[in-house]
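Hello Y.,

Per our agreement to keep a running log of every chain we model this quarter, I'm adding this entry. I've kept the format consistent with earlier entries: sequence first, then predicted structure.
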Amino acid sequence: MSFGRVTGGDNGTLDGRLERILFDQAAIRERIAGMGARITEDYGGGDLTIVAVLQGGVLFLADLIREIRLPLRMDSISVASYHGGTASSGTVTFHQSRLPDVEGRDVLVLDDILDSGRTLGAILERLRAECRPRSLRSAVLLSKRVERAVPIEADYLGFEIGDEFVVGYGLDYRGEYRNLPMIGVLKREWIDDRG
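Predicted structure for the entry above:
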């Protein structure tokens, strides 16, 4: 199955750039349905606001909210820690001055991947300190089995993966591959290690 040609001057197809597929569409859908059912049960009767981390969490958000059977609000937050490479830079940059208005609400922060813990940790810390939510939890689609720079784990987890660079389903490399309908490991030859 081919996923189409990539623009930008090369003749490679997206499927040809993956070393292997970790999770296909069916597996992702099934896991997200289970997460949605658990969140619905846990937050029944609550005043839930979901805050998605842009841009990687957008596909996760779109599919997960359709599985949550509760009234809810949505917001987003834009941060960066990768800055175009394959490893966290160690610095979390907030791209917006206004944080979501979640005072007194139950808040669930959605992110695509948890690895060093810096990004999710920084977001939770700022929301807790500046926005005064009633409760604050997190959900991630992927969690890497690595030693974290910030000791944090997600309250809701889709899949655990090894220490590999993955793309697809919202995850990118230099802004590309987010549109892949699955999650796969990008071949080393398609990664430019020059920074």
